[in-house]
Protein 1
Amino acid sequence: MNRARVLSHLLSRAPPGTPLAAARTFIYGGTRGKASAPPPPTALAAEPFLNGSSSNYVEEMYTAWLQDPKSVHQSWDTFFRNASAGAAPGTAYTAPPSLAEPTPHHVPLSSIAPAMATSPMVGDVQISDKVIDDHLAVQGIIRAYQARGHLVAALDPLGIDREALKDRPPTTLPSRTVVRSYVDAFGEEDMERSFKLPMSTYVGGKEGQLPLKEIIKRLENAYCRSIGVEFMFINSLEQCNWIRQKFESPGVMTMDSLEKRLLLARLTRSHGFEAFLARKFSSEKRFGLEGCEILIPAMKQVIDRSTSLGVESFVMGMPHRGRLNVLANVCRKPLEHIFTQFAGLESADEGSGDVKYHLGTYQERLNRVTNKNIRLAIVANPSHLEACDPVVQGKTRAEQFYHGDSEGKKVLSILLHGDAAFSGQGIVYETFHLSELPEYTTHGTIHIVVNNQIGFTTDPRMSRSSPYCTDVARVVNAPIFHVNADDPEAVMHVCNVAADWRSTFHKDVVIDLVCYRRNGHNEIDEPMFTQPLMYTRIRKLKPVIELYADKLINEGVVTPEEVKEVKDKYEKILETAFVEAKQETQVFNKHWIDSPWSGFFEGKDPLKISPTGVHEDTLKHIGKKFSSAPPNASDFVIHRGIQRILNSRMEMVESRTADWALGEAMAFGSLLKEGTHVRLSGQDVERGTFSHRHHVLHHQKAFRDTSVDKSQYNALANLYRDQAPYTVCNSSLSEYAVLGFELGFSMTNPNALVIWEAQFGDFNNTAQCIIDQFISSGQSKWIRQSGLVLLLPHGMEGMGPEHSSARLERFLQMTSDDPDVLPPFSDDFAIRQLSDINWIVANCSTPASYFHILRRQIALPFRKPLIIMTPKSLLRLPEARSSFDEMIEGTEFQRMYPEAGPASNNPANVKRLIFCSGRVYYDLVQARKEAGLEEKIAIARVEQIAPFPYDLVMKECAKYADAELVWSQEEHKNMGAWSYIQPRIATAMNHERHISSERVKIARDSEDQSWYEYWFPWFFPSSGPPEPESPAPSQVHVASKPKRPVRYAGRPVSASTATGNKKTHIRESKQLLEDSLAL
Ligand SMILES: Cc1ncc(C[n+]2csc(CCOP(=O)(O)OP(=O)(O)O)c2C)c(N)n1
Ligand SMILES: [Mg+2]
């Protein structure tokens, strides 16, 4: 008999209504009301032990037996042999001997069914059938509670979420929603019968058997009261058992009176804070926590418990709801700082600031419960719900990394969510998928959902398709603890279990606080417009503080006087802070920084860039290591193609040149040598999308007989004995989460070069929120700096609408430099520009340029995000290589490469000066050569587009004083750098005369003269008439008609970034060269 036949035999022949039929329902899904009548019973269906949920087990046994009869117990072997040989009904089975030492759970069958003790097979078959069936049914009931008890748990303080509750019978029998067909086996009369408890439950405590009534009662208490536990989907038996134990063991929820009093005090503060704000600032938006005041004690409990388990630092992210309360009562941010945010005061320091319910904070404080010092950070976030999730994770990971906390024992991330956002925002899913990746894991996050069963004005049934708002967490096998927020003690229990879970398994866990929102979405909204019935009910509810205080008074844990005393005391604290806050006349943005970099700025010249050129020996050493096989080369088989790449790298090193990959490796390697951690993350970055990087070499032979590639070599991580660590990691296929993660990582340590590379530049737009809300504006809103680098492959190379453009224009449009204002010239012009702008945008055309700009990120005395358009075909273009001469000591990043060819020798002869950036330069140079125009046309490359190198551009323009100015780009006219460049060249040209008069006049009489003479020699004629007077700088405005207009040469405007048609692409490319070069 083959496997399928035996199994289908086992399952399909079960008569309706028997436990075996129920097993089929379990295994193949519900068939109630749909299944056709099964065939009549057969010999195999008559085997009583095949009933119920044992069918899975039978299947496993049978599969194992087929492979090796000795691999199963002798009794199974006998059974399968007999069954295969066609044994008569009920005769194939022989009772097995005891398999193990009896445990407390192990009750001999004989004590329950004496007839079984002597001869279970030959005895009365009817009796043993019944006993075993009933036990299996009890086992089914237990399992059903564990799997589905949450469906009928009383989770909702409003009592509006559960249609399922309706099927709760008025008897002691359990709900059908939970136990489904298992309940058919029993009636009320069976409730007093004792049943042996299986290993899969802990409800018995020390007892091995219990009356059915008691079993059900205990299961109801564990799974169907204020806590609903979702965990049976977890694939680990150990983890499932751990959770069972935490919720089923008798007495697990017991709290002593001290704990209860502490809980009441915390609830008092949580409630009191909102009530105070409501009173003092009744018309201010604060997104109050009323209806989920338990959040504060819950977070504190998670923190207390985790602190006692060794955690020292908490990185938290949260939305608007209850944020001020969390700042005040969890982080203990000074109350005056919070209250001044309501006062509408001017800010005393840098930054444009943010609304109060988005601000972050960082506090160090003593945890009184554990008497340990802890660090608490809440990451500032934009309005965009859930966007800070990956940022928090990145920051957490970085803290763990730099603290050597490789198992996440010291640093813990806590993420708070709203119910609508948790289920609605895709970033939640993307972030979950980072949770167990080796270079992204934070070793478990505790998620807390403020599930007020509404999102703004929308009900859950309109805002999600999943039963729970937390279902997204199931993708990573995270247990989910739903809990009624009006049962504070249940919430505390769940918080303890969550903290223990995280500390035991280092995996994510979710606490779903099922609550309500007492007011509208914010304090100004009227909720009755849209949720009249819900709010009618809410208005009848007592606040949880009253419910809990009453409970504790009834229990005799506190007196009404004590309750009042605690309340009054907190009121007084609030009142005092309120009065103090009133004295303030200014707010300070620096009070709200979430990632302080202590010591980084101190003692630094804020306008000095350290050198970026490095010693030639260093370049050679890195180059050679990067071009070599691992030290144990004889054991490590390298792919022949890779060997060729290594060989050609070595040749380049020997000839003192670098291609793009080598230039990058030298930047990384030299930083690593200097002690700077480098982290490169993104899709397929280890090899590089264009197969040019190869930072991780793979041994080509199977490693210890496994098919998983594990033997690797990373040369950059092995350059020097005492170098900093190098992290290069292929990411999940996400941009939003991974970019957010790297941003978070970059926030922690300014002395690290953190880089995110897009597979192709255009994919950055799926991370737009991180770019717009955090990277572009983070410093301005939250005075938080970041030196994060974005590498965005960009270039019109005939690859179609996607894969061509990294949308350079968007990054440029978001730069914060004013196109109409020429910054004042000085020796530190370049660094002042960098300091003033929100980010740096570059389109590097040479490896040396790339090398220097990467190194400059660390050499700067501050941190700025850097966006680089990176090349594709230039990666391998021989002309696009750099000599070591451009990278050695004394060299630096060239913001613009001026024309250096024949045209530069005779500027007066030059008819046109073309400015361009990036790859198109090489096409222009080639075409110019072919057209024989090398003396007539000068071409300058702008490497750093923003901030715009006004000084260098002006110098170049002045040099070719009679030349027509052209901006040439390969992107369409409404894209690329044109719209950024045009007004800035206009400003530069317009101010030229102004500088000639105003500045020169000052310079002539001052020490500045040499600087001006150097940069603007044409303003210092040895003889000639004096410059005409011009207005002072403040009075100069941009003329409507620039003195030297710049002409556009490139593709016309387009809705699409690039054509998908190869021929059109070639025609357009030709046309742009003609437009650029035709004289
Ligand atoms: C990405 C994003 N989309 C829309 C909004 C607008 N918005 C602000 S709060 C809110 C409702 C959030 O509901 P929920 O997540 O349940 O949190 P609650 O306000 O109920 O605590 C919406 C839609 C937003 N802030 N972010
Ligand atoms: Mg909500």
Protein 2
Amino acid sequence: MMLRRGEYHAFSGADARYLYLVPSAGVVELDDVSHAVLETLATGDKTANDLAESLGSRWSGEEIRSSIDELLGVRAIHSVIAPPVTPPPVKSKRSIPLQTLVLNVTSKCNLSCGYCYEYGEDRIVESTTKPRFMDEATARQSVDFMFAESGDSPSVNLTFFGGETLLNFKMLKSSLAYARQKGEELGKQVSASLTTNATLLREEIVDWFIENDVGVTVSIDGAREQQDKFRVFSNGMGSYDIILPRIKDLLARHKRRPVGARVTLTGQNLDVASIYHHLFEEIGFWEVGFAPVTTSWQREYAIEDEGFRSLLSGFQSLADDYLKAALAGKRHGFSNVRDTLEEIHKGMSKSHPCGAGFGLLGVPTDGDVALCYRCAGSDSHKLGSVFIGVDHAAQATFLETHHIDNKTDCSTCWARPLCAGGCYHEAHTRYGTTTQPNLHYCEWIRAWTNTCLEVYGTLAAKRPDFLEHL
Ligand code: SF4
Ligand code: SF4
């Protein structure tokens, strides 16, 4: 058998060597003989006999053959004549239960953030043709739809999104109560979460979070300086002084679920370290996640060239702090690195960039079924309606046309098991089609993925117990 090195990315931890495998996305530790086999194959295709001959003075034939078998098994090497390994084929939707339903309960917001995709030319939803608020009947029907689509799954996640979600608080209360009652009847657990800009938080709402175990994420851009520059009311007034006491009250009282912060990073707001420090250390959020804007109809907000370098260095510095904290047995709240470590640990090899369109669906105010919360309300990304169910033919076509196998630009990229071409909404905004991979940020994605792999490798060598919690 003629052997060749597989497509992989190798890196070294302090005490161990690791191999990151494409397309399986598995991370394996190399022993000395496996490492030598790979080094030898790096010089060109070889037979098993060639390898035994060149490495025979250091290891027995049995050790070399067993190493070859293991490397073949984890797809680090392959037979020259074997067909290339491809990701698993798309399963039909009927076999993939819905895990998360996102209800866009309103498209209205009481803030006017300049970069928001809801209000600029980035919007792919024509808001004038849709009701601004979801009504009770649509919300109840959406809940029925969620259970019907969840198949045999014992649990479902109901997520509320906006606009500003709390503008429709009355409907949140009634629909979650209905979902919990129905979940009890069906023997399914319902977890609930929402995102809010925190301007409308009040005692009654926090009480409801606590009583109903609602997970809360607050959209916030940093300290007063950043928040008041970007997250403003329509009259231009900053929102920091309005939200700070409300957030402090929320954090002091809502202990049942961790409260996280979600920061929108634009080309004008990239001081990741100071934002993190303020939100985690000074305000006391449980975790902080950053969402970089890489495409915007307003050029000054899109992160480009130098911005990507600054973003990467900020993320790398926080990832370094995360690693140090993990090695010392302390908690660090940088959720971007934690989320990627989790994907690596699960050996993720994505056929699609995210769950949008199958495990996750979005419902805009009128009850149409959409890919996700950001695409909710777009007629060209409609996958049915909560009143008549999922359009399985449209869904199957979507999943097939968006499969990583059809993204030829990504076919040789080692990061594709985790990236798979990136966000559909971004692709649509930038290239006018969701099928196009987001090639404008490949370099950044690969550099960031590499950083996460190094963190993972070091933890695997020094604190494997930490990884078990992921
Ligand atoms: S979009 Fe770029 S980084 Fe992502 S998988 Fe495709 S080629 Fe790789
Ligand atoms: S399409 Fe983009 S915004 Fe929607 S769930 Fe996927 S990654 Fe998130």
